[in-house]
């Protein structure tokens, strides 16, 4: 079990988060920003403990399932949250529920940092207006693509690196000393309840009354088949088959009504 994180490990994770928050890899990095799963995988690879990192990240993913980003801003930054909470959980051997309670405030601080990035980019926009008036192609490329990425890298890399290299060992050591106390119990209880909030948000965003029956069916199938140790891939295949049958029968019904 890790008791600390090296400078090189902190630098790799911080660089990953900075690239994701900068959208430096194009539109695909937008999805990487919205989900902590890839960040958790990177953390697991860097810390040589992918299984434990992914178990923790899967629990964190549940609370972000229903998040939307109006205007490009999130109430919490999932990638930032995972970059700190997962190393802490791996180093302190935390239960995923307790790691969730750490991820929430860290993600909130990450959203403030992302909003500050918008403020810094307003200065870049002044140059964009200037180059647009001059019809300067190179200048527009610089201010629309290059400078915003550099601003994000300069902003996020030092913040995440310092938080990882200096902060996570202290948090992990503190949590290890209070694992039997009331504080740890509170963190576990709060973290255990937050995934339900994420699922509820998802149902609110995409849920319709006529589809609730499918959610209930999936829930009771998971309860009934728990003793069989059915994996997620099997559930995904069953869900895909049911979705295909639903679309097939509803489309036939619609065609018959038109005739």
From TrEMBL:
Major location category of this protein: membrane
One Pfam family it belongs to: EII-Sor
UniProt keywords, alphabetically: Cell membrane, Membrane, Phosphotransferase system, Sugar transport, Transmembrane, Transmembrane helix, Transport
Membrane topology (UniProt): Multi-pass membrane protein
GO cellular component, one term: plasma membrane
GO term, biological process aspect, one: phosphoenolpyruvate-dependent sugar phosphotransferase system
Subcellular location: Cell membrane
Transmembrane segments: 98-120, 140-163, 183-204, 211-228, 234-251
Statement: the UniProt record of this protein carries the keyword Cell membrane: yes
Top-rank taxon: Bacteria
Residue ranges that the Swiss-Prot or TrEMBL entry lists as coiled coil: none
Signal peptide span: none
UniProt-recorded name of the protein: PTS sorbose-specific transporter subunit IIC
Source organism: Thermoanaerobacterium aotearoense SCUT27
Upper classification of the organism: Bacteria, Bacillati, Bacillota, Clostridia, Thermoanaerobacterales
């Amino acid at each position: 079990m890790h008791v600390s994180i090296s400078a090189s490990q902190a630098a790799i994770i911080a660089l990953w988060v900075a690239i994701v928050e900068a959208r430096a890899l194009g539109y695909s990095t937008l999805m990487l920003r919205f989900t902590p799963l890839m960040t958790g995988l990177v953390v697991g690879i860097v810390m040589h403990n992918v299984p434990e990192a992914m178990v923790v990240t899967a629990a964190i993913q549940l609370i972000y399932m229903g998040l939307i980003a109006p205007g490009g801003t999130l109430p919490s930054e999932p990638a930032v949250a995972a970059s700190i909470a997962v190393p802490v959980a791996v180093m302190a051997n935390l239960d995923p529920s307790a790691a969730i309670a750490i991820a929430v405030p860290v993600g909130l601080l990450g959203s403030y940092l992302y909003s500050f990035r918008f403020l810094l980019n307003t200065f870049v926009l002044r140059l964009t207006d200037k180059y647009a008036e001059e019809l300067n192609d190179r200048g527009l490329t610089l201010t629309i693509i290059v400078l915003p990425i550099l601003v994000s890298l300069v902003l996020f890399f030092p913040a995440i690196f310092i938080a990882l290299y200096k902060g996570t060992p202290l948090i992990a050591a503190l949590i290890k000393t209070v694992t039997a106390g009331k504080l740890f119990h509170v963190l576990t209880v709060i973290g255990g309840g937050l995934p339900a909030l994420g699922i509820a948000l998802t149902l609110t965003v995409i849920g319709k009354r006529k589809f609730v029956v499918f959610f209930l069916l999936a829930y009771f199938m998971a309860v009934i088949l728990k003793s069989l140790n059915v994996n997620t891939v099997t559930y995904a295949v069953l869900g895909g088959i049911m979705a295909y049958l639903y679309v097939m029968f509803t489309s036939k019904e619609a065609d018959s009504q038109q005739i």
